[in-house]
Amino acid sequence: MPSFLEDRLPINIDYGSSFGEEYAVEIDTTANGNEYRRLRHNAPRARYDLSFDMRQQLWVMDEVVALYHRVFGKFAGFRVKNLADFSSNGYTGTPAFGNQACALVSAGVYQLQKSYGGVGGTISVGRPIRTVFKPVTGSVLIGVNGALYPAAQWSVNTVTGRVTMAANKSRAITAITKAAQAVVTIGAHTMLVGESVGFTGVVGMTQINGLRALITAISGTTITVAINSTAFGTYTSGGTVQTNPITGETVTAGFEFDLPMRFDSDISGLTFDTFDTLSTGGINLVEILNP
């Protein structure tokens, strides 16, 4: 069977539970009291201690015990929404495309992640980083070079948290006009209105290099972009326009996410407080760092 199920622990079970986070720190203490500390990695790890006292015994069986059996106890993971930390924007804010930097995995592929610790100094291993494997469907926004990147130009895998850019469209430039919206001659092309494009390698009109903008109009051999080139230098030669992020451009993301977790204890100690009330002192969950 798979070692992870995309089932989510019902959110209303979170109420009344306790939550904490930890880091993988090893500490050796010498006889004279000196400490030697080792940080094994820079990822926080969440833990839950669920407790419940539900008036509907069958609801508890359906939602908690049934999940426990579906994942074979401690074996398989599942999704948990941490009501204290589920957004790229702070902890619970509305996601925006510039919230978090994405990690480059390979050409055109990026990993969602979230950094912690605010704006203070960092130690040698850098900031705490949580790899986001389980983004919430429909919540992800992507930015490139400080601008929202059109949804048609990327896709996200909500099982792995990896963002894949659409096939790159790249054309050599042969002319650029000075205009409130620059017209760029690129020959026959397949670029579309609404796509985001970036510029590199232009000679003469060097101010356009590194800029990114949306295409506002097209013809068979030109694209018009939302860049005011009126005050730029005169185009002389060269340059490339492309849809995918250019080397040096920052890819960012906004999203909501679930934590991949598993049971870290067996269910035991279930007690009938009254005929129709079933309670337990705690059911432990632990975050899976690499599901």
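The record above closes out task 2.4. Task 2.5 opens with a second protein, given below.
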Amino acid sequence: MQEIRVSLGDRSYPILIGAGWLDGIGARVRAAVGGQAIRAVVISDSRVAPLYVPAVAASLRAADFAVAEIQIPEGEQHKNLAWLALVYDRLIEAHIERSSPIVAVGGGVVGDLAGFAAATILRGVPFVQVPTTLLAQVDASIGGKTGINHASGKNLIGAFHQPRLVAIDIDTLKSLARREYVAGLAEVVKYGAILDAELFARLDRNVPAVLRQDAPLLSEVVATSCRLKAMVVEGDEREGAYRAILNFGHTLGHAIETLTEYRRLLHGEAVAIGMVCAARLSQVLGWLPRSDVERIEGLLRRLGLPTAVPSDLSADQLALAVEADKKAVGGKIKFVCLEAIGKTRFEVLSAVEIANAAVAQP
């Protein structure tokens, strides 16, 4: 078991990384939330629940929790106000108290929605993340961002609510569809591109091993990504400045997701496209060498990720979606560019500039 600490004063928490340990999670949750809690609620989705909720719920009961279970449908399109309202209803029916932990078992959608419910029900209850997708393990479960989507854009409604514990069992990745696993690799590439040139090079050297989920390599890649995310969160918990580097590829990625109604592309696939666009824009602005653009695009292609904006999306559509980004200020975006692999810089750009660069031919 590896333990990585996210140091945030009285909001600090551990990230535990191991294999095959979900049947022992109850004791860890009990230690994280204390002895007062009587009830716990497990929130999952229709695909993940049959795989992992029985073991998690049994372990929680063994740790003296009365356990209720809530299930939502799978998919980003269900991360909305309607399903949040249903979750609130079920939480109230379960008679949760302010000491009752909400345990999210699943990917980023479950973690975001359950986390926002935990942040707001009874003005805040303890929250535990049990991420079962690669994307959630290396990114979405860490840092306290919670939220739901609005028709106008992704994650426009949300709150910061740090978990008490992030419990990662890398064996859960074996149940992922290949497409979902590959989509999660986009976030790992992001960490290499913005913070760790050696991580990027390691991925570049070991594509076949990464794709076959070589256990020692995968465990270290997950742990390295978690350390990098923890470092950024510790430096800027609420995204006042530095944490915005984690948005590399996400400004355009979110716009593409919104325009395709969260049905055509997985989040990581949209982020991969956004990263290539951001790298090309960095080159146009005179910061990033062409050779590094080619390395980024080449690695994403070899991993099996898309790299081009869907042909039916216009610059005008993209510009409107980018303007709705929650981080826009006065119609401008603090856009994350690269100077080199492993080194970022911010450029303040208009939505039109970003969109036009995205659809331009390389």
